[in-house]
User: Which sequence fits this backbone?
């Protein structure tokens, strides 16, 4: 009887961790795509996700109150807006500096992130905001588990977006060009691939993923202008654990981080979970410096 | 014949006389004084950006509302500067204000870490800091220039713990608190007061502000046999904890910290999730029926297009007490400091009086939500908790 209750509790925790982890996976995926494409870290990525949350809230307030569209309907619009924002970020903070030292890009993306954070704080205010639910409310109950429609939709949407990016990268000619440019820019250029176009496209895809993640997070966990740094840290750790530049590695590591944090927090405490997570990161760095899945080919910033 | 000389034999410069007299006065503790009928300079240094921007903005709004409506015969000039989130920025803002504005008082940040860095500088300049910071240590360091217009944790945590135990009948509460100074200070006081009431918490969980998922903590509280939840969390985490407790059928009473009374926090949660949830606070401007508070709330809404919280009201009361001092003839920082230390002030939220250390607020309230809307009702008042008044 006690064992059954324990299993049910653990299963319930896994469900909530999967919902959180799938959004972290989207954040990490967008982050690692940029690393792959340009070999530099986009420190504004967490702030892009945060901005997407506020774009979602803004769209809701712009629409007539009686429409009350679910987040699923708004998702394509938010992703499109964030793709454009990411293109602007690339034009301002990456392309003019790409021939300079990597530290220039670090600093410029940090600056863009801070501009986004303070700009949103000035326009929307400092208070947390809540976005619309992806789908209507409701719960599914069975086997001692209580799963909300929102959680199911979050995991499903995140999985669809990850699969779509995988399909784009591996099953289209355009994706092959993107990967070729990421792995060996000089050879790709010699083969006639326009590097500026592939870089811009990658920023747009990463921005769209940030849009998806921001919308998913804004309802379930709210959004505040200062959220970017925390999200960025999660994406960075996922990338280190999953293998620098490994797309699937980062997504899986993000899921694993959420599961680890939730289960250890439930068994012991949040502080122990956090401490063990960072000890784990150190252990991975020492035992497998290229991450659990190895480092992708390309430049390391 | 040499004319009156001084300063190593150079010709005496009469233009320096006022500077010398002023400097001597400052040395003797008289400090810069505003002309008897001239405008009074006041600085407003609060965190308008960063993670405490919500509370800092409320502080600024409350301060400027008071400063824009000084009592008859008093005119005020004031500057507002952002202290953001670091002690360095706050110290720089204070030094600049002291150099350029010579304020007779400073509306100072809610952020205790910044206040701890600013207090020694303000102490040397002998300029009073008017704050709503809850950091207990602030008024225990011997500075006589800090005046706190928000009750400390030693006051509000008494209300939170007593209401949970005496009114809700909790005997096995779980405490979830933030890892920040705010969370730790409140947690310490909660445990102390619960101990005085003969109650021991069954779970004390420290939670980083970046944590989004409270289900593990709720599961652990349930497993520990908790019969209620006491929260000492910031705004967003408080709303997350309350919502997730509702969604996961926690089913036990919750008494939150003052973050929940903020209208922007309650706005994050559906009214149904707030049903039966209570919170401590110094005041609740949106639900207080007293005419003065109602008028303040309406003026605040009209001016800032947002709902006022207890921080805004406390900072408003603090600045009105400074202006009352000026109206009573206190025209220098030292005179204002003495007046604040010696006098009682009937503010909108409560009656303020220093305990000798600069703690001016001694009342707390408990507000509870019905589940029908997001406007709480004041269900209990705890007046003069520390017996100072």
Assistant:
């Amino acid at each position: 009887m006690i064992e059954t209750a324990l299993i049910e509790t653990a299963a319930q925790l896994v469900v909530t961790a999967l919902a959180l982890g799938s959004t972290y996976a989207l954040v990490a995926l967008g982050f690692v795509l940029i690393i792959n494409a340009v070999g530099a870290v986009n420190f504004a990525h967490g702030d892009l996700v945060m901005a997407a949350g506020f774009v979602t809230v803004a769209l809701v307030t712009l629409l007539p109150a009686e429409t009350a569209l679910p987040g699923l309907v708004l998702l394509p619009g938010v992703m499109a807006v964030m793709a454009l924002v990411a293109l602007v970020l690339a034009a301002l903070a990456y392309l003019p500096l790409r021939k300079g030292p990597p530290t220039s890009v670090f600093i410029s993306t940090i600056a863009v992130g801070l501009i986004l954070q303070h700009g949103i704080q000035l326009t929307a205010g400092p208070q947390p905001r809540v976005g619309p639910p992806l789908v209507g409310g409701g719960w599914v109950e069975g086997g001692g588990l209580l799963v909300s429609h929102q959680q199911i939709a979050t995991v499903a949407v995140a999985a669809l977006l990850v699969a779509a990016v995988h399909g784009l990268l591996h099953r289209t000619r355009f994706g092959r060009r993107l990967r070729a440019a990421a792995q060996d820019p000089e050879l790709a250029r010699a083969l006639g691939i326009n590097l500026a176009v592939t870089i811009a496209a990658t920023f747009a895809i990463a921005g769209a993923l940030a849009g998806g993640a921001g919308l998913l997070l804004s309802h379930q966990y709210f959004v505040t202008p200062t959220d970017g740094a925390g999200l960025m840290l999660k994406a960075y750790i996922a990338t280190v654990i999953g293998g620098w530049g490994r797309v699937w590695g980062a997504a899986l590591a993000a899921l694993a981080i959420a599961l680890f944090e939730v289960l250890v927090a439930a068994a012991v405490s949040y502080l122990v979970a956090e401490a063990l997570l960072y000890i784990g990161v150190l252990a991975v760095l020492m035992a497998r410096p290229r991450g659990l899945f190895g480092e992708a080919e390309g430049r390391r910033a | 014949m040499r004319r009156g000389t001084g300063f190593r034999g150079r010709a005496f410069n009469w233009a320096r006389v006022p500077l010398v007299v002023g400097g001597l006065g400052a040395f003797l503790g008289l400090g810069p004084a505003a002309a008897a009928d001239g405008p009074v300079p006041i600085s407003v240094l609060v965190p308008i950006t960063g993670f405490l921007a919500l509370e800092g903005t409320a502080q600024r709004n409350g301060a400027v509302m008071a400063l824009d409506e000084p009592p008859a015969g008093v005119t005020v000039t004031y500057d507002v500067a952002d202290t953001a989130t670091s002690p360095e920025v706050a110290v720089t803002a204070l030094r600049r204000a002291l150099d350029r504005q010579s304020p007779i008082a400073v509306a100072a940040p809610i952020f205790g870490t910044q206040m701890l860095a600013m207090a020694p500088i303000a102490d040397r300049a002998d300029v009073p800091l008017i704050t709503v910071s809850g950091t207990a240590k602030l008024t225990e360091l011997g500075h006589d220039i800090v005046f706190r217009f928000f009750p400390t944790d030693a006051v509000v945590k008494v209300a939170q713990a007593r209401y949970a135990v005496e009114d809700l009948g909790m005997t096995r509460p779980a405490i979830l608190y933030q890892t920040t100074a705010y969370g730790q200070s409140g947690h310490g006081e909660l445990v102390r007061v619960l101990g005085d009431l003969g109650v021991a918490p069954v779970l004390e969980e420290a939670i980083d502000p970046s944590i989004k998922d409270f289900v593990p903590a709720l599961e652990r509280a349930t497993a520990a046999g908790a019969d209620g939840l006491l929260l000492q969390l910031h705004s967003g985490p408080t709303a997350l904890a309350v919502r997730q407790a509702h969604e996961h059928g926690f089913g036990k009473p919750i008494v939150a910290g003052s973050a929940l009374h903020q209208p922007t926090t309650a706005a994050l949660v559906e009214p149904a999730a707030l049903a039966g949830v209570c919170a401590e606070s110094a005041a609740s401007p949106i639900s207080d029926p007293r005419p003065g508070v109602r008028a303040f709330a309406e003026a605040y809404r009209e001016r800032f297009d947002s709902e006022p919280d207890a921080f805004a009201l406390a900072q408003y009361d603090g600045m009105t007490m400074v202006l009352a001092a000026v109206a009573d003839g206190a025209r220098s920082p030292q005179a204002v400091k003495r007046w604040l230390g010696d006098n009682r002030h009937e503010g909108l939220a409560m009656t303020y009086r220093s305990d000798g250390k600069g703690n001016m607020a001694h009342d707390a309230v408990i507000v509870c939500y019905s589940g029908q809307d997001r406007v709480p009702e004041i269900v209990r008042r705890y007046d003069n908790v520390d017996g100072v008044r």
Observations:
- The interface with chain A takes residues 48-51, 53-54, 56-57, 179, 205-208, 210-213, 215-217, 219-220, 223, 235-236, 239-240, 247-249, 264-265, 267-268, 306 of chain B (CB under 8 Å).
- Residues 59 and 312 of chain B are 5 Å apart (CA to CA).
- The radius of gyration of chain B is 23 Å.
- The longest strand of chain B covers residues 40-46.
